[in-house]
Amino acid sequence: MHTHNNDGQEPVDASAGFEKSDVRVGGVTVFIVSMAIFVAVVAIVAWGLGKALNAHMASTDGKPSRWSKTVDVRELGNMPTSPDLQNKMGELTRTFPTPRVQTDDGMQDVADLHAREDLLLENYSWANADHTKVRIPIERAMELLAARGIPVAPTVDQPKPMTGDGTPRVTAPQTNGFTRTAYEQGQK
């Protein structure tokens, strides 16, 4: 059965029930054969390289002596735990130098840091070893600043900006960057 296109092209034979011009079997066959040859060549090169490396290592290490032999460790099975070894391991881990791997997720360290910061921010303390300067609580410092005002620094003559320079503008609100973690909020 032949069909004709209205475009003036040659007629298409639809008697086979499928399009014959879609796949070229010769191209697919060449690709599969070349891929198989490539895989075989790579396998042979890898095997030869492995043999050459093993021979080189055997020549540099020397011949096996009566003191060295290959043992199948699967025959040994699971070794029993020894309380002496466990105690020794515990002793080693207790004396392991810093920095140590944390055993928790580190939230307690952050909570401890914030507690130390709170001690400095909420209490009176000496600021130096000579006991000549005192830290005051932050609430009291804010009261003093509100009463006295912020001291103004003397003005400094700024050089004239160059052409194209502009003054920076802050477009986002600024914060002090401090907040309690969810871990600390859950402890209160």
Describe this structure in words.
With about 190 residues, the chain is mainly α. Among the domains are: about 1-60; about 105-150, no CATH class. It is built from 5 helices and 4 strands; from the N terminus they run E-E-H-H-H-E-E-H-H. A two-stranded antiparallel sheet has the order 1-2. It is flat and about 100 Å long. About 0% of the residues are buried.
Which features would summarize this protein structure in a list?
188 residues, mainly alpha, two-stranded antiparallel ribbon, two-stranded antiparallel sheet, 4% strand
List the helices and strands and how they pair.
Blueprint (H helix, E strand, L loop, with lengths): L1 E2 L8 E2 L11 H37 L21 H12 L12 H16 L2 E2 L7 E2 L2 H11 L33 H6 L1
Antiparallel strand pairs: 1-2, 3-4
Kindly summarize this structure in a few lines.
It contains 5 helices and 4 strands; from the N terminus they run ββαααββαα.
Neighbour order of strands in the largest sheet = 1-2
Number of strands: 4
Helix fraction bin: 40-55%
Major sheet attributes = 2 strands, antiparallel
Give the CA-based shape: flat
Q: What is the CA-atom radius of gyration, in angstroms? A: 41 Å
The helix/strand order is: EEHHHEEHH
**Which runs of at least 5 residues are low in confidence (pLDDT < 50)?**
none
- Which structural class do the helices and strands define? mainly alpha
Average pLDDT, to the nearest integer? Answer: 79
The rounded distance between the terminal residues' Cα atoms is 87 Å
What is the strand content? under 5%
Q: Can you count the helices?
A: 5
